[in-house]
């Protein structure tokens, strides 16, 4: 305001004494000044809004809904917060593209196939740029536990190579603990990791499935007494990782974990009360394989579609009912007599059908063997959907449409199929674990999902909460 009153002073003082031709430049200067002032005030308003929004975000995080661009016009101020102003305008333009271009990417065809969905990433450039930033700056504090802790088996990483159906949980912890994201300094941490393992608790005879809820409750009480970090946000900047579906009920006696913390879980259904979409994140269920994925030209894939599994859900019953004896859709129930790998390599499409849970390892299996996954699991919040455009490498079919399955799959043109299959080969690296992580593998992708959900500002609930 000092500037503007100076100008006004100059203006009022000099206008009368100068000749009229000075009036025009002076007015122009004044108008420009007012314009600049208006710009500054509106910009600072914007920044205030961002501060405010970031505040809110630290309590209830927002994330991009699947299928929409990575950075919609609202709800991404967390990411913008640290950025220079230049980047703000770039971001709000959606990486330089306009709204009509962005919506063109998500139009659906009549059978739910998005014919224009050719790109694997919602926005590759933004992902690459943010990934580098995440890789440089993201810091995780892990609650420390000693080797002689009586629950070291549950709290420390396993000392063998994780395997089996729920390996994702153990892999994540093992890789995280050796990674450059870990900090010993809690003041520089973006997020706090709760290192308990649901899978290990389940198998610990002192705990077992019935004891998990009490254990989690006690663990949270313990860390909230011993450290100031939990109380600061009531857990909102904490996360845990679990793949077994028992993790869903494990938080029943620790409601703040369920309501506030970031749950990175395999059983990620929009339909279940334990999972809070947009706050929590989907962890891919991956059967670990160490060798390089095999390759097979698409023309060698003779079968239209393949499924193998037990009948443990109404959805699978429906599949059985319609496609049991089909000559093109091979649906095997019970023990498979041929090698699983050969079936996945010999089929164009591989079916992922909801069983007890929306998730199984079948999606990652299909991707590994270069088979286009067909996802029949309503309400599945698909892994990495913030980043990856699932319509570009999979076919999502509603349970209701199981009778139309053959029609839908045959309705996919060979060009479209080649594109889907080509994209499968592109995305499969994101669905692989490595003991020594490789850029863009499952570990880094989960880190990125966490980074999207981090809080950049922490509320100080009370002055005393930071003492001790
Ligand atoms: C958005 O971009 C498209 C394609 O470049 C163009 O046709 C359209 O007019 C643009 N729309 C706006 C609102 O700028
Ligand atoms: C893809 O989009 C273009 C316009 O952007 C349209 O002309 C074309 O028909 C679309 N293709 C399909 C297969 O829907
Ligand atoms: C991420 O960080 C790791 C460890 O510092 C480094 O080896 C890797 O090259 C980085 N990746 C990218 C894409 O920056
Ligand atoms: C665990 O080891 C530490 C030293 O590393 C020791 O101070 C502590 O008393 C031990 N705790 C138990 C329960 O044995
Ligand atoms: C909580 O702390 C108590 C006392 O130190 C300990 O006996 C108990 O094992 C801890 N429980 C958990 C789940 O960490
Ligand atoms: C956190 O809050 C709990 C419950 O209100 C309290 O028992 C605990 O002492 C607090 N922790 C710290 C470090 O102040
Ligand atoms: C499939 O074949 C079995 C015998 O091989 C027969 O009992 C059954 O009715 C057939 N199911 C369908 C849906 O055609």
UniProtKB/TrEMBL annotation:
The chain crosses the membrane at residues 21-40. Its main location: Golgi. Keywords: Glycosyltransferase, Golgi apparatus, Membrane, Signal-anchor, Transferase, Transmembrane, Transmembrane helix. The keyword Transmembrane applies. It is found in: Golgi apparatus membrane. The keyword Membrane applies. It is a single-pass type II membrane protein. Residues 88-110 are annotated as: Disordered. Pfam families: Exostosin_GT47. Residues 135-410 form the Exostosin GT47 domain. Belongs to the glycosyltransferase 47 family. This is Exostosin GT47 domain-containing protein.
């Amino acid at each position: 305001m000092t500037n503007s009153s100076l100008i006004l002073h100059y203006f009022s003082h000099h206008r009368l004494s100068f000749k009229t031709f000075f009036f025009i430049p002076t007015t122009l200067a004044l108008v420009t000044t007012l314009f600049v002032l208006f710009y500054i005030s509106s910009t600072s308003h914007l920044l205030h809004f961002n501060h405010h929004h970031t505040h809110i975000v630290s309590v209830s995080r927002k994330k991009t809904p699947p299928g929409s661009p990575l950075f919609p016009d609202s709800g991404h101020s967390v990411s913008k917060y640290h950025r220079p102003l230049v980047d703000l305008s770039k971001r709000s333009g959606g990486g330089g593209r306009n709204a009509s271009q962005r919506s063109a990417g998500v139009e659906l065809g009549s059978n739910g196939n998005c014919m224009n969905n050719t790109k694997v990433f919602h926005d590759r450039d933004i992902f690459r740029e943010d990934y580098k930033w995440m890789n440089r700056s993201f810091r995780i504090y892990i609650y420390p536990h000693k080797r002689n802790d009586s629950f070291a088996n549950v709290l420390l990483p396993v000392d063998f190579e994780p395997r089996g159906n729920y390996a994702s949980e153990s892999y994540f912890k093992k890789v995280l603990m050796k990674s450059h994201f870990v900090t010993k300094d809690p003041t520089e941490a973006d997020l706090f990791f709760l290192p308990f393992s649901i899978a290990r608790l389940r198998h610990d005879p002192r705990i077992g499935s019935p004891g998990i809820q009490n254990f989690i409750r006690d663990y949270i009480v313990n860390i909230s007494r011993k450290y100031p970090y939990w109380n600061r946000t009531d857990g909102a900047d904490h996360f845990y990782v679990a793949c077994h579906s028992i993790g869903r009920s494990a938080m029943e006696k620790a409601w703040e974990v369920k309501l506030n913390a970031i749950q990175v879980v395999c059983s990620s259904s929009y339909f279940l009360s334990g999972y809070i979409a947009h706050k929590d994140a989907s962890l891919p269920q991956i059967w670990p394989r160490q060798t390089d994925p095999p390759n097979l030209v698409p023309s060698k894939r003779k079968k239209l579609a393949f499924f193998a599994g037990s009948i443990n859900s109404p959805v699978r019953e429906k599949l059985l009912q319609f496609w049991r004896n089909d000559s093109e859709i091979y649906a095997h129930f019970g023990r498979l007599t041929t090698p699983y790998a050969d079936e996945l390599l010999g089929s164009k499409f591989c079916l992922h059908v909801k069983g007890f849970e929306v998730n199984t390892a079948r999606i990652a299996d299909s991707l590994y063997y270069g088979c286009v996954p067909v996802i029949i699991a309503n309400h599945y919040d698909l892994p990495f959907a913030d980043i990856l455009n699932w319509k570009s490498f999979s076919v999502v079919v509603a349970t209701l449409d199981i009778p139309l399955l053959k029609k839908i799959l045959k309705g996919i043109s060979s060009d479209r199929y080649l594109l889907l299959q080509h994209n499968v080969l592109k995305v499969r690296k994101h669905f692989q674990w490595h003991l020594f992580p490789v850029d863009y593998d499952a570990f880094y992708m989960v880190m990125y999902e966490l980074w999207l959900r981090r809080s950049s500002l922490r509320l100080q609930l009370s002055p005393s909460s930071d003492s001790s």
